[in-house]
Design brief:
This protein has two domains: 8-238, TIM Barrel (Alpha-Beta Barrel), CATH 3.20.20; 243-283, no CATH class. The longest helix is centred in the middle third of the chain and has 17 residues, at 161-177. With 284 residues, it is of the alpha/beta class. It has helices at 8-17, 29-37, 49-52, 64-77, 96-108, 124-132, 148-151, 161-177, 189-198, 219-222, 240-256, 271-283; strands spanning 21-25, 42-45, 82-86, 114-116, 137-142, 181-185, 203-206, 214-217. The chain has twelve helices and eight strands.
């Protein structure tokens, strides 16, 4: 059953009405069907797919081709959620024109509705150019995984008064540049809450407390599918990793004990045809 499509206007109205926005990452066709069915507002095809789908140690290795491949699969499965494609590291940093062209590929080739970029004031010029080209942009500040080595690791941001003030300046610059929403990742709740009050565009928090206008989690974290990195802000709503291992173990045991496949999993043969076949085999 298809849903009514969520638009950027709907997302902005949610903030005005004080209705929390729900966002979740998704990376493939089947997951997109399931997540969309759960009525989520926004699906983010995040570059976190580098870690949870491709086994990289971080997100900097992720390429445009890998992002577009997963975005296309998600777009084929989702019908209602607003679709955000995450621009990978070095697809928008070097040159403004290249940033616009790469952002365009997410809409033109991969069926996304908008793109997300990491970074504060330094990305404002590119964001402005992308928005002017007619492509809606979601910003992302705080812990920005693409520049994790510059940040000195996966660490909470904006813990001092000076760095918190700098995050607020970044958020205001992104709003000014034309972002329709901004992700706040791993920052103290009071800072996120204050930024959310100062902005007219919605904030979507991950590890940023309940004062944001919406929340985002990584699909694999929410479902308990990935245990290599477990930040404090993750809440597991399922234990699918364990469920998968148990199901596969049971399958292996049943194959080894010849209890699978059973009669109900097997195609029968017409009795006469079977007899004729057995007779022919016996004559050989
Ligand atoms: O790539 C991603 O999954 C993200 C979210 C954590 C916001 O950027």
């Amino acid at each position: 059953m298809s849903r009514k499509k969520v638009t950027i206007l709907d997302i902005q109205k949610r903030k005005q009405k004080g209705v929390p926005i729900t966002m979740l990452t998704t990376y493939d066709f089947t997951a997109a069907i399931l997540v969309d069915r759960a009525d989520i507002d926004i699906i983010l095809v995040g570059d976190s797919l580098g870690m949870v789908m491709l086994g990289y140690s971080g997100t900097t290795q992720v390429t445009m081709d890998e992002m577009l491949h997963h975005c296309k699969a998600v777009a084929r499965g989702a019908s209602g959620a607003l679709l955000v494609g995450d621009m990978p590291f070095m697809s928008y940093q070097a040159d403004v024109a290249e940033a616009v062209r790469n952002a365009g590929r997410f809409l033109k080739e991969a069926g996304m509705d908008c793109v997300k970029l990491e970074g504060g004031r330094e990305t404002a010029v590119s964001i402005q150019a992308i928005v002017q080209a007619g492509i809606p942009v979601m910003g992302h500040i705080g812990l920005t995984p693409q520049t994790v080595s510059q940040l000195g690791g996966f660490r909470i941001q904006g813990k001092t008064a000076v760095s918190a003030q700098s995050l607020l300046e970044d958020a205001l610059a992104l709003q000014e540049a034309g972002c329709f929403a901004v992700v706040l990742e791993a920052i103290p709740a009071t800072v996120a809450s204050h930024i959310s009050q100062q902005l007219t565009i919605p904030t979507i928090g991950i590890g940023a407390g309940a004062g944001c206008d919406g929340q985002v989690l990584v699909y694999h974290d929410l479902l308990g599918l990935y245990d290599r990195l477990q930040p404090r802000f993750v809440k597991q709503y399922g234990a699918l990793g364990e469920a998968i291992t148990t199901a596969v173990q049971t399958y292996s045991e049943e194959v080894r004990s010849r209890t699978f496949p059973a009669k109900e999993h097997t195609y029968p043969m017409n009795e006469e045809e079977e007899a004729a076949f057995l007779a022919a085999v016996a004559e050989r």
